[in-house]
Amino acid sequence: MKKSVLLVLAMIAVLVFASFATTIVMTAGAVGREYQVLQQQIKVFEKENPGIKVVLMPMPNSSTDRYNLYVTYLSAGMPQPDVLMLDVIWPPAFANFLVNLNPYFSKDELKDFFPGAIRADTYNGKLVAAPWFIDAGLLYYRKDLLKKYGFEPPKTWDELIHEAQVISQKEGIKGFVWQGAAYEGLTCDFMEYVHSYGGAILNDKGQVVSDSPMVKKALQTMVDMIYKYKISPVGVTTYMEEETRHIFQNGDAVFMRNWPYCWPLLNGKDSKVAGKVGVEPLPEGTGFAGVHHSATLGGWQLGINKNSEHIAAAVKLIKFLTSPQQEAYKAINAGQNPSRLSVYNNPAIIKANPFYKSLWPVFKNAEPRPKSPIYAQISEILYTNVNAALTKQLTVDQAVAKITKQLKDLLGQ
Ligand code: GLC
What domains appear along the chain, each with residue ranges and CATH number? Predict the structure, then answer.
């Protein structure tokens, strides 16, 4: 047979096979190593499930941008994407568009997941997403530089400011980098300062309590880091996670606030700080009764689009990606914390990420953001006004007054 005939036959065979295979589309993040790691996992999944093909749909890095895309897809009633990675704060907003996963996870199985994540994923009694990985804000620091100047890792923001000032001036590098752009990441950072000074934005009853000296002090601390103490560059007001990681990984900063995914990258082949990095809880505030170390609870969930035409295949994929084996693989290779408690008993993941063990209380006690179907609007009020204060468009008092008024209007208080 001629080569060209063989080729045509081969192409027909591929097309016939493809039309028999079920294709599901899954949204995917590309922060750090997560996309490459997911691609590897999908290869394994497709091998184990020859009738299913998974097409990954890369998402922008900003959680806020992803949210806006999902609003478009889901409100248009589209059948794809079939599987959605969802930020821990979104289940209430998207609950009506997602499949109830309760039939697919036994009560016993659910006990293995972080209780805070299960709470976040349960809305009106339904499990609308399955926890995939957990995040908590962490303080990364340069062990070598702190040692050189005789410092211990800072316990308070004041200590951090002092150490960052001394070291950054002597070394000619930045003191402290964090996420100050106007997006969801800034809400996460801001809430850590607010909580660390013993403040709150909403109380347990959902009432707006942001007009407090603790909240003002929290925001003042962030502003002062840029303009008064000059430990953070004005550029932080445009940084998201990856910008801060690149600076720190390049050896250009003493301290960084970021999530666990940075660890394998900071210690990777092409990192200038491999072996020189330590991880500690974020510092606490001073001067108020309720000061404490606080980390914002982050993390991503997997949900299924109610309009998907391939729900059974989508369930298979979610069960696979949240299996103990795959969570361990992801933790070791992408540095993303397992959402299953039992996976932390696997010595290989502790070896790869030793701080999972030493910072266990940070992950266990990470503080959630408000749970509300209109969370996106609440957060927008926070990050917009906080960013305006960080860029000197508003004073701290003006920003806090605006936050308070806008939240009260939004929530009808
Ligand atoms: C991380 C967290 C997520 C948070 C986001 C903010 O992806 O897991 O919960 O909203 O960062 O940038």
Answer: 2-135+299-363 (3.40.190.10), 138-294+374-411 (3.40.190.10)
